[in-house]
Amino acid sequence: MNVQAAPKTGRTPTAAVTGLIADAMQKAGVPAGDAAKIAELMLEADLVGADAHGVFRLPQYVQRLKLGSTNPRPNITVTRSAPATALVDGNNGMGHLVVSRMVETAVEQARECGVAWVGCRNSGHAGAAGVYAALPLKADMIGIYSAVANANHMPLAGGAEPLLGTNPLAIAIPAGKEPALVLDIATSIVSYGTIKNHRLLNRPLHADWMIDPSTGAAVTDPQKTAAALLLPMAGYKGAGLALVLGLLAGTLNGALFGRDCVDFNAEPDRVTNTGQFVLALDPSRFQPLAQFKAEVDRHIRSLRTSKTLPGEDVRLPGEQRAKRRADRLANGLMLPAELLTQLDKLAGELAIKPLRERA
Question: Could you give the CA distance from residue 158 to residue 156 in angstroms, rounded to a whole number?
Answer without folding.
Answer: 6
